Amino acid sequence: MNGVFPYARPGQTIGLLGGSFDPAHAGHAHITREALKRFGLDRVWWMVSPGNPLKVQGPAPLKQRMERSREIMQHPRVAITDIEAHLGTRYTAETLQALQMQCRGVRFVWLMGADNLAQMHLWKDWRWIMDNVPVGVLA
Protein backbone atom coordinates (compact mmCIF):
# COMPACT_ATOMS: atom_id res chain seq x y z
CA MET A 1 0.00 0.00 0.00
CA ASN A 2 1.23 3.50 -0.71
CA GLY A 3 1.29 6.56 1.56
CA VAL A 4 -2.11 7.83 0.42
CA PHE A 5 -3.93 5.10 2.32
CA PRO A 6 -4.05 4.71 6.09
CA TYR A 7 -2.54 1.52 7.41
CA ALA A 8 -4.54 -1.65 6.77
CA ARG A 9 -3.40 -5.23 6.43
CA PRO A 10 -5.04 -8.23 4.82
CA GLY A 11 -7.64 -9.76 7.09
CA GLN A 12 -8.70 -6.47 8.65
CA THR A 13 -12.21 -5.05 8.38
CA ILE A 14 -12.28 -1.35 7.66
CA GLY A 15 -15.40 0.79 7.87
CA LEU A 16 -15.63 3.57 5.30
CA LEU A 17 -17.62 6.69 6.05
CA GLY A 18 -17.67 8.90 3.01
CA GLY A 19 -19.16 12.29 2.38
CA SER A 20 -18.52 15.96 1.97
CA PHE A 21 -18.38 16.52 5.76
CA ASP A 22 -19.51 20.08 5.15
CA PRO A 23 -19.24 20.52 8.02
CA ALA A 24 -18.15 17.49 10.02
CA HIS A 25 -20.30 17.27 13.14
CA ALA A 26 -21.00 15.26 16.29
CA GLY A 27 -23.43 13.00 14.40
CA HIS A 28 -20.62 11.79 12.15
CA ALA A 29 -18.46 11.07 15.20
CA HIS A 30 -21.35 9.28 16.94
CA ILE A 31 -22.07 6.88 14.09
CA THR A 32 -18.33 6.21 13.73
CA ARG A 33 -17.97 5.21 17.37
CA GLU A 34 -21.13 3.08 17.17
CA ALA A 35 -19.92 1.36 14.00
CA LEU A 36 -16.62 0.47 15.69
CA LYS A 37 -18.55 -1.12 18.56
CA ARG A 38 -21.47 -2.76 16.74
CA PHE A 39 -19.83 -4.04 13.56
CA GLY A 40 -16.54 -5.34 14.96
CA LEU A 41 -14.45 -3.06 12.76
CA ASP A 42 -10.69 -2.86 13.13
CA ARG A 43 -10.64 0.74 11.92
CA VAL A 44 -12.78 3.39 10.26
CA TRP A 45 -11.59 5.65 7.48
CA TRP A 46 -13.43 8.92 6.97
CA MET A 47 -13.27 9.71 3.28
CA VAL A 48 -13.73 13.47 2.93
CA SER A 49 -14.76 13.83 -0.69
CA PRO A 50 -13.72 16.62 -3.04
CA GLY A 51 -17.41 17.12 -3.89
CA ASN A 52 -20.82 15.51 -3.92
CA PRO A 53 -22.29 14.79 -7.37
CA LEU A 54 -25.82 15.01 -5.91
CA LYS A 55 -25.36 18.54 -4.56
CA VAL A 56 -25.64 21.55 -6.85
CA GLN A 57 -23.45 23.85 -4.78
CA GLY A 58 -19.86 22.85 -4.12
CA PRO A 59 -18.60 22.31 -0.58
CA ALA A 60 -16.15 24.39 1.44
CA PRO A 61 -12.49 23.92 0.50
CA LEU A 62 -11.23 20.37 1.11
CA LYS A 63 -8.40 21.47 3.41
CA GLN A 64 -10.89 23.28 5.66
CA ARG A 65 -13.21 20.25 5.81
CA MET A 66 -10.27 17.93 6.58
CA GLU A 67 -9.16 20.17 9.46
CA ARG A 68 -12.69 20.33 10.91
CA SER A 69 -13.04 16.54 10.58
CA ARG A 70 -9.81 16.03 12.55
CA GLU A 71 -11.12 18.35 15.29
CA ILE A 72 -14.44 16.49 15.57
CA MET A 73 -13.20 12.89 15.27
CA GLN A 74 -10.21 12.06 17.43
CA HIS A 75 -9.95 8.33 17.95
CA PRO A 76 -6.92 6.04 17.65
CA ARG A 77 -8.76 3.67 15.26
CA VAL A 78 -10.15 6.39 12.97
CA ALA A 79 -8.24 7.97 10.08
CA ILE A 80 -9.36 11.14 8.34
CA THR A 81 -8.51 10.86 4.65
CA ASP A 82 -8.86 12.57 1.28
CA ILE A 83 -8.46 9.28 -0.58
CA GLU A 84 -10.93 10.18 -3.33
CA ALA A 85 -8.93 13.28 -4.25
CA HIS A 86 -5.84 11.07 -4.70
CA LEU A 87 -7.70 8.32 -6.55
CA GLY A 88 -9.49 10.78 -8.81
CA THR A 89 -12.81 9.03 -8.20
CA ARG A 90 -16.07 10.89 -8.08
CA TYR A 91 -18.62 8.21 -7.21
CA THR A 92 -18.75 5.85 -4.24
CA ALA A 93 -18.86 2.72 -6.40
CA GLU A 94 -15.72 3.83 -8.25
CA THR A 95 -13.94 4.53 -4.98
CA LEU A 96 -14.91 1.16 -3.52
CA GLN A 97 -13.72 -0.67 -6.63
CA ALA A 98 -10.39 1.18 -6.55
CA LEU A 99 -9.91 0.43 -2.84
CA GLN A 100 -10.65 -3.25 -3.37
CA MET A 101 -7.95 -3.34 -6.05
CA GLN A 102 -5.39 -1.39 -4.00
CA CYS A 103 -6.01 -3.11 -0.67
CA ARG A 104 -6.30 -6.79 -1.48
CA GLY A 105 -7.39 -8.94 1.44
CA VAL A 106 -8.92 -6.02 3.34
CA ARG A 107 -12.67 -6.26 3.91
CA PHE A 108 -14.44 -2.94 3.54
CA VAL A 109 -17.81 -2.06 5.05
CA TRP A 110 -19.61 1.01 3.73
CA LEU A 111 -21.07 3.06 6.58
CA MET A 112 -23.92 5.49 6.25
CA GLY A 113 -26.41 7.38 8.31
CA ALA A 114 -30.02 6.26 7.98
CA ASP A 115 -30.90 9.61 6.40
CA ASN A 116 -28.71 8.79 3.37
CA LEU A 117 -30.31 5.40 2.81
CA ALA A 118 -33.49 7.11 1.57
CA GLN A 119 -31.62 8.64 -1.37
CA MET A 120 -29.22 5.80 -2.12
CA HIS A 121 -31.25 4.81 -5.19
CA LEU A 122 -30.00 8.05 -6.76
CA TRP A 123 -26.34 7.04 -6.42
CA LYS A 124 -24.46 5.92 -9.50
CA ASP A 125 -24.14 2.12 -9.51
CA TRP A 126 -25.88 1.80 -6.15
CA ARG A 127 -26.86 -1.79 -6.91
CA TRP A 128 -23.19 -2.70 -7.42
CA ILE A 129 -22.45 -1.26 -3.97
CA MET A 130 -25.24 -3.28 -2.33
CA ASP A 131 -24.19 -6.47 -4.14
CA ASN A 132 -20.45 -6.18 -3.47
CA VAL A 133 -19.84 -4.39 -0.17
CA PRO A 134 -21.49 -4.91 3.21
CA VAL A 135 -23.40 -1.77 4.18
CA GLY A 136 -23.81 -0.69 7.79
CA VAL A 137 -26.65 1.78 8.35
CA LEU A 138 -26.77 3.70 11.61
CA ALA A 139 -29.38 6.07 13.02
Q: What's the helix-strand series?
A: EHEHEHHEHHE
Shape: globular
What's the number of domains? 1
Total beta strands: 5
How helix-rich are the residues, as a percent range? Answer: 25-40%
Alpha plus pi helix count:
6
The rounded Rg comes to: 14 Å
Profile the largest sheet.
Answer: 5 strands, parallel
CATH class: Alpha Beta
Describe the structure.
- This protein has helices at residues 26-38, 62-72, 83-87, 92-102, 114-117, 126-132; strands spanning 13-19, 43-48, 78-81, 107-113, 135-138.
- By secondary structure, the protein is of the alpha/beta class.
- Strand 1, helix 1 (26-38) and strand 2 form a beta-alpha-beta unit.
- 26% of the residues are buried.
- The mean pLDDT is 93.
